[in-house]
Amino acid sequence: MSKSVGLQEEVWPELERIIQEHRGDRSALIQVLHRCQELVGYLPREVQVKIAEGLEVSLGEVYGVVSFYSLFSTKPRGKYRISVCKGTACYVRGSMEVLERLEKELGIKAGDSTDDGLFSLEVVRCLGACGLSPVMTINDNTYGLVKPDAIPQILRAYRAAGVA
To answer: Is the pTM higher than 0.85?
Structure first.
């Protein structure tokens, strides 16, 4: 197996084991992707290639599943995963201003992670809390009726917790 410079050497045997358990089983694609992402933290191209080879599916099919489901990521994610809802209710009530403030405060764009690995930022279509719009989540914590001016204080609390 070709090894990525970015991946730790010790994850490759475990990746191989996960793939080997399902060798040739096309129906196990989502399960294998999930387990490999839990191990690595994301699904870089070389891991997708190995999964495609092992399950005997095309790389295009693997990438199609990875890019369709928001659960999967092709980039490393931060310790704190921030999701900003861009559904209709949230959009109308100011989610774009919340997103812009987050991008400014974090120094990244949606889809990226901070250099320190603390935060990643993504846009989602709906968080299912339309009555609280605009809504964002940070990991399992939900923030409703978010105002852009509240963003620095929210991030400060996570930064303090992240370095402790």
So the answer is: no
